Predict the structure.
Amino acid sequence: MIEQLGNGLLLGIIISVASVALSLLYGVTRIVNFAHGEIIALGAIATLFLSSPVDSRVIFLDRFSPLGNNFYISVFISVILCGLFGGILEFFLFRPLRKAEVGNIAVLVVTIGLSLFLRHIYLLFNAKPQNFPLELQRRETYIFFDMTPRNFRVLILGIFVMVLIGLFLNYTRMGKAMRAVRDSNDLASVSGINSDNIILFTWISSSMLAGLAGVFQATINDVRYNMGFLILLLIFAGTVLGGIGTSFGAMVGGFIIGIVVNVSVGLPFMEGHTEAKNAVALAIMILILLFRPQGIFGEKERVS
Amino acid sequence: MSNKYLKVTNLKKSFGGLKAVDVQSLNLNTNELTSIIGPNGAGKTTFFDLISGFQDSDEGKVYLNDKNITRSQPYSIARLGMIRTFQLTKVFDRMTVLENMMFSASTVNNDSFIRSLIRLPSQKTTEKNIKEKSFEIMKDLNIDHMANSYARELSGGQKKLLELGRSIINDPDILLLDEPLAGVNPKLAEEILQIILNLSEKGISILMVEHNIEAVMKISQRVIVLAEGMVIADDTPENVRSDEKVIEAYLGSENE
Amino acid sequence: MKITFKSSLTILITIFSIFLVFLLNDEGEIPILFNLLTFAGIYGLAAIGLNVHFGLTGLLNFGHAAFMGLGAYVTVLLIPHAAGREGVVITTGLPFFLALLIGIISAALFGLLLGLPAIRLRGDYLAIVTIAAAEIFRLLVRDLESVTGGVYGIINFSNSLQQYRSGFIDNFASANDLNPSQIWIAFLSWTSIILVLLLLRRLTNSPWGRALRAVREDEDAVRALGKNAVWLKLQSFMLGAGIAGLSGVFLAFNYGTIQVSTFVPILTFYVWAIMILGGVGSLTGPIFGSIIFWVIISETNGIAQLIFENANGQQIAGVRFVLVGLLIMLLMIFRPSGLMGKKEELLLDVK
């Protein structure tokens, strides 16, 4: 059980960070971004690409040499790249759609198409699961949990990042502006906030966070073309559980989902069915949407 | 006294600490044309939502014809004879005006899956009758020339008329009109007002929320004033007009 | 279907895309064409079901694969079959058409089960819930290994349907060097399409169809006029689910095996792409969308070879999915009404 709890914390930090990213984006733009998983994957893939030779079978990239060998610089650059990517998506895709007053459903379907598109571009570049070029470590004990020192550092870093975000949202001007746009777009624009800039900033920061979540995931597990897609539903679950529209809720919800997924393996009715561990978390999400759609911390938003 | 009336007791609704509606008692009699007025944010539309089933009250009871409808579904309440319109006109944009009307006129049984699948000749007759009835009402409301246009092509005022037409085609007992004159040009407003009067004379009880005080005073038999969720006056138009509390409520809100 | 500019153009494009099959292939065009048409029939039927959900009623269902899967599994489990590596082998069962009927009804009931709680949810949340439900379905089916064969699937069931194959199918197949089993499936699925479309045409132009369209427009108004919007949506959900179940059965019989890995999100996305391409809300749209879509898919082989030397299966699939994703995006951005959809009837807003 303790072991599962440890794994749960690790999965939890990945989902937490990713959920906060998704929640921020949804809060400000009202877009459910199904391509979120692909931005997460991008963080991992870019880091991999930058920090080690990539075994790529795409002809024209065959002989590409890596940009640098320092892992942490690669992480840093790839997170920035993700932010850039998010900014590009907003500027060239979602902003024109918004200006053309394209409805939410259409945008949602566009993100689904985008997700499919990106994920398989990654596949074409990088078919097999790969690991970051980091040396193998042995597990050590931290309080109750056994995990590698690196994973422990990921956990701590993740928590630190989230605290930073919380502070940012509550105490900086930009953070407050984001919350204002989230709570009411009309009111915000009336009080002189330029929502276009806020939205752009949100896309960039959300994507950076997502990329970081991807780096975490790849550190703890590995790099796969569909790594984002695999946890996308869990991220939705975390966001819904914690409360749509609250970042704190997303943080907590993400952790709970991560723990639930791993701990559910130990539940009696799950014996012999461990492959279906995601199912429990998903079922919880559906139940929440039906019976307490505002999640744990959210305010009642129109869900039906 | 006949049973056709609406009775509201102790109806309360708050949103996160803010009291939206707090109506101790309100009774609607048959055949009355009653208006609800009040400054913005007084809780008028919320009150409508509460009695028509679109929102749940925190406390209180609503009775229609002695039947407890407090927790009833909106469609049940409508089937019991109380039909409401909406502040933001809700017409079926991508259906024609005629289809809008025929939808309303068609009964739930007529709409059924099985019946639509099997298509007995009796359904053809029913559809024909519905069509005729729809045209009748559309002619009365002067929108019959738009019968085959998509509803979204109508002007704001015509949409209000369509919504009205849909609401009356089944001879409701009580009509709840939420700002029937909002955003309508004065000439059309006159027409709508006259239509409302005619409906009232035909025997439909009408409860109307309106901001247009002149119109309200002109046709209402009874005026209820809501301020901050509570009833502060409930009397004839003349008495309400000179009621101090009412004047204060409106003046107060003007100063904000 | 009326002969309008739009429908003529669509037919022309469809014919042209079929022509492309002959153009782009040096040999074996007929088998390729019929293979394509078989899949087009199966997926077209699925898209027709999805169109009932989204086109007619405005429901964002992204779990369509689960309805297809349920129809398939229930039907197959009721006829003679062999499950998985060490699963059960059943040698007797119900007559095929009875099993099929039960399968379709089961899919519809699954629609009811899922819909009862979920149908009240707003558009984007319904999308998430349907995806989650489909995933739960997939996980459960995969886990019930002894019954469903788990990841190994179920085999040895085709005969129940193929035994009814008529002589003229066999003759036609051998005359053209085709697989008679597949032609039989193609024949059945296209016949089903025609029957289902006739049914739907009757329904959409009826009071029931009118009520559903009203629900699509404005549920609150529907309620205020005395009709139960939720129940209407449920009925539509069940109908579309049943149609999907039927298509799932054909899909399984086309492969001759049924595996849970067939009924994954990709399948749902394919059906969505076909529906959008054909034209949301158009009765016949899915037919054309499906044919053109499958021409594109079957020619991706060639495109993949252009990009990669000796493209392997995974790369071909990758190119395929990249194209589908791109297609979905471009359609929604530039031509959301697809081929046959009516621009005035586009529903693109979450209410």
